[in-house]
Amino acid sequence: DDSEGEAEEYLFKVVIIGDSAVGKSNLLSRYARNEFNLHSKATIGVEFQTQSMDIDGKEVKAQIWDTAGQERFRAVTSAYYRGAFGALLVYDISRRSTFDNVGRWLQELNSTYSCYTPLTFFSLCFFSYLDRLLAHSDTTVAKMLVGNKCDLDNIREVPVEEGKALAEAEGLFFMETSALDATNVKTAFEIVIKEIYSNVS
Ligand code: GDP
Ligand code: MG
């Protein structure tokens, strides 16, 4: 119990990445507010939601970031990834191209320091050094590959086995979800948050 008057509290940043329209924003709204939007507009600006869960009697908060319609490669800035302890990398099981791009998203996630702005060589080095300091780059990032829209099984283009195999090869957790009918959404976020917690505690 917290007889000392101060319960232990954790706050972790988690990012959601993946191609446009794979369902990132709806996964977040399903998890955070139990809402689904059939005609969701592209997110403008960076948006995040904070969700709490209880692990071993401790309050663990996840600050979950949603990309701001910047799903083109190199458009997501390092500030988005900076300090993240967990990531959900989402593709759409009914659109092959979104699965084919998973490798590029992984690369971007793993090397936040690439040239995406016209910085001079000096400032690039400087900021990349700063990033490493701030991001505790030795910390493991808990990553999950998420095949969303599993309700669209009748028009599936990516077999479950392929998703599983890729995740295994890359050392990622794997889950198929549906933001539409809520399948596995809570579970997916909670596995990532629990993994982060076990990485740091
Ligand atoms: P984002 O661009 O990755 O944030 O994708 P959105 O969350 O905006 O979703 C894009 C479109 O896919 C919207 O029309 C959603 O209604 C739809 N969508 C999202 N998740 C699902 C899902 O699990 N199943 C189905 N059938 N449609 C979904
Ligand atoms: Mg979105």
Automatic annotation (TrEMBL):
Highest rank taxon of the organism: Eukaryota
GO MF term set: GTP binding; GTPase activity
Similarity comment: family membership: Belongs to the small GTPase superfamily. Rab family.
Protein name, as recorded: Uncharacterized protein
Parent-record interval covered: 3 to 203 of 240
